[in-house]
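Final report, closing paragraph on structural work. Over the funding period we assembled a curated collection of sequence-structure pairs, and we close with a single example.
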Amino acid sequence: MTTPNGNRSDRSPWNWLLIVPIILPLLPFLYNSDEPRLFGFPLFYWLQLAFIAVGVTCTTIVYRMTKRRR
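Its predicted structure, as stored:
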């Protein structure tokens, strides 16, 4: 929704941080290996869980930095 004077409130440089959790899983050289293992799980599986943590962290940072102050 735009404000009456036409300025958009969703234009923040912090929004660019949301690209990180999108691009990171698309880089196959990061997880194209069986080693190292963590608790018996191959790299691919525990790295997918790490990608979730990165996504949550980036989303939280963007939310906190762009929410309106009341």
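The CA atoms of residues 18 and 58 lie 6 Å apart. The longest helix spans residues 43-66. We thank the funder for supporting this effort.
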